[in-house]
Amino acid sequence: MPRFFIYNTEAGERSEIEKNVLRSQFAIMMKRLWYGITWPSAILTLIFGGWIWYLYPGTPGWLKIKLIFVLGLYLYHFSLHMIFRQEMRGIFKYSSQQLRMWNEVPTVILVAVVILVVVKQNIGLVWGLAGLFLFILLLMTAIKIYKLFREKK
Question: Do 91 and 150 touch, CB atoms closer than 8 A?
């Protein structure tokens, strides 16, 4: 979804005819993705995740932390819904650069969850956090480099 938000925002830099055509097409595509895939997936994940938690009540500590990250993904999902509703009303509050950075939030959460699940207690909390912050720094640097590359074109 954030990629569509980026494209929809950047369509505003085009001529009026191109902008209208692109934004109407992006609106159709975003609605299909949002209501046909994203929301049903979020609901099914909540149902099946709750069911597994119910079936296996003795959750270890690392799994509880993982569920906090999943809660973070739901908060991210709701923030995307807010942006989606704004863009459907023609309100574009965020630049494409801001949306590019927001697009990487689930990547950071995914890496944190994978690190947490794979290493569990084999690595110290400090080293795990240091690795995660290093990954975030690399992502933000890549976004800045990409912005410089796009501005040179």
Answer: no
